[in-house]
C-alpha cells in the first residue's frame, strides 16, 4: 500500500484516449497517481480540484494547443512541472512550448516510455529541491528578521565574547531573560530546520 501523501500526481492530457492509456500502462510500475484528461478544458478542471505535480500534455489538440494550455498552467500553477508531447517535430511548436509554457521537456511521439519515466523522476527530484530551497529561504528570512529585531532592541545582546578555547561566553548578569529567550528561539528554529 502506498502512502498517498508521498505519491506524486501526474496529469496526462491527450485528445486520443489510447495515447494516455498507453502512457499510463508504460508507467504503471512507478509510484504515481495518474489523472487523465482528453482536453485542455478537462485538464484545467482537474487542476482546479486537485494538486498535480507534473502535467504531460499533447501539443496538437482541438480548441487549445498543448503549449497554450501549459502557458495557462504556468501562470496559475507555477510549481507544477510541464512537459509536452508532439507528433510533429516542428521547431516552431518546440519554441512556442518553451517560451509560453516554460516546459521542462519536449518529447516527440511516440516517446520512449523509459525516457519519459526517467525524466519525470528527474523533474520530481528537481521540484523537491526547489521546494526545499524555498522553505530554507523562508526560514533564513524569518531568522534574519528575528536577529534584526533583537539587535534593534538590545544591540549588546548579540555581541559575542569568546574564551581562549573558542567557546561563547554568556554574561548572565546582563539581560538573562533575553539570552534565555534567544537560546529558546534558536533551538525552535533548529528543530524547524531538521524537519
Overall mean pLDDT:
81
Shape call: elongated
Tally of individual domains: 2
Report the uncertain regions: none
The strands making up the biggest β-sheet line up spatially as 2-1-3-4-5
β content, as a range?
15-25%
Fraction of residues in H or I helices = 40-55%
Cα Rg: 25 Å
Tell me what the CATH architecture of the largest domain is. 3-Layer(aba) Sandwich
Secondary-structure element order, N to C: EHEHEHEHEHEEH
Largest sheet: 5 strands, parallel
Quantity of strands, as a count: 7
* CATH-defined fold name of the largest domain: Rossmann fold
CATH homologous superfamily identity of the largest domain: Response regulator
Query: What would you call the structural class?
Result: alpha/beta
Report how far apart the termini are: 24 Å
- By CATH reckoning, the class of the largest domain would read Alpha Beta
